[in-house]
Structure formats: structure tokens, C-alpha cells
Amino acid sequence: MRHVASEQPLDMGHQTETHAWDAELVPGPRGRTRRPEPGCPVEVALAAVSGRWTTLLLRELMGGPRGFTELRTLLPELSAKVLSERLRALQERGLVQAERLPGFPVRTRYELTEAGRTLRSLLVELYATGEELLRLTHAGSGDE
């Protein structure tokens, strides 16, 4: 049985904040969500590096502009189809820009945008965190 008089409309939030947020984990109001939100900074960062091969592609582009063939050489197991898809997705996210070079055959050079270059510290931290997790969970295969 519902007690209609005591219910708040669905769109009405609480008037006071009672949750004690960790100021390091959630330094601003955008992260104070109860579910994944597109404007949450953590969700934005995760979306930027999501997708198989994306982190490796970003890593290679951190070294400077690269052509499609050069990227295929650096990541030989990455198919041309998936490389094209990842580059297109990174362009749509505003992380990579493409420049068509004159001449025949037409060549394209890919370069990180300023937004794409900001991902460097995230990739460095992801690597360090992964190393630590492997060490702590003994998941490493003795490659130490």
C-alpha cells in the first residue's frame, strides 16, 4: 500500500547532502552521482580509452603523428578494419585529428588533439596500477 502524501515527485531531489564524499575521489559535484552519468569525469575518462586496442593506439600516437600504414606496422595484429574503426571513434571523441596529405596514393596522418594528449597521465597511471594489481594478486606469470 502506498502513502501518497509522504511521497516526493520523482524529479525532486533531497534538499540536503548527507553523504560524506571522499574529497580525493570526488573533488567536485559532477562525480556525485548514484549511477554512471555521461557528465561524470570518471565516466568521460573511461569512455575516452574504452575499446579493445584503443589504449595501444593512443600509446603509439603519444609518440607523435603517424600514418595508417605506420600504425599497422607498430601494431601488426590489429586488422585494418579495427584500426579504421578505432581511429574514427577517437576522432568522434575529439581525441585524434586526421590530416589528408597531398599526393597519390592519398595518405592520412593521425595526430592526438590537445584533449587526446591529456590522456597520457591516465595511461601511465593505468599501467602502474595494473602492475601493482598483478603483483598483489599474484596474477603475474613470473615475468618480473
Q: Please identify, by name, the CATH architecture of one domain.
A: Orthogonal Bundle
SSE order, one letter for each helix or strand: HHEHHEEHH
CATH superfamily of one domain: Winged helix-like DNA-binding domain superfamily/Winged helix DNA-binding domain
Oligomer: single chain
Can you identify the CATH class of one domain?
Mainly Alpha
Mean pLDDT: 85
Record field, number of beta strands: 3
Main sheet attributes: strand count, strand direction, barrel closure: 3 strands, antiparallel
Give the helix/strand class.
Answer: mainly alpha
Distance between the termini: 61 Å
SS element count, helices:
6
Describe the strand arrangement of the main beta sheet, using strand numbers. Answer: 1-3-2
CATH topology of one domain: Arc Repressor Mutant, subunit A
Q: Which percent range describes the beta-strand content?
A: 5-15%
Proportion of residues in helical segments:
40-55%
Computed over alpha carbons, the radius of gyration is 22 Å
Overall shape: globular
Low-pLDDT runs: 4-15
Task: Characterise the protein shown here.
- It is a single chain.
- The chain has 144 residues and is mostly helical.
- It has a domain at 54-130: Winged helix-like DNA-binding domain superfamily/Winged helix DNA-binding domain (Arc Repressor Mutant, subunit A, Orthogonal Bundle).
- 40% of the residues lie in helices and 10% in strands.
- It contains 6 helices and 3 strands; from the N terminus they run H-H-E-H-H-E-E-H-H.
- It has helices at 41-48, 54-61, 68-74, 80-92, 114-117, 120-137, and strands at residues 66-67, 96-101, 107-112.
- A 3-stranded antiparallel sheet has the order 1-3-2.
- Strand 2 (96-101) and strand 3 form a beta hairpin.
- The radius of gyration is 22 Å and the shape is globular.
- The model is unreliable at 4-15 (pLDDT under 50).
- GO terms for molecular function: DNA binding.
- It comes from Streptomyces pactum.
- InterPro entries: HTH_HxlR (IPR002577), WH-like_DNA-bd_sf (IPR036388), WH_DNA-bd_sf (IPR036390).
- This is Transcriptional regulator.
- Residues 1-38 are annotated as: Disordered.
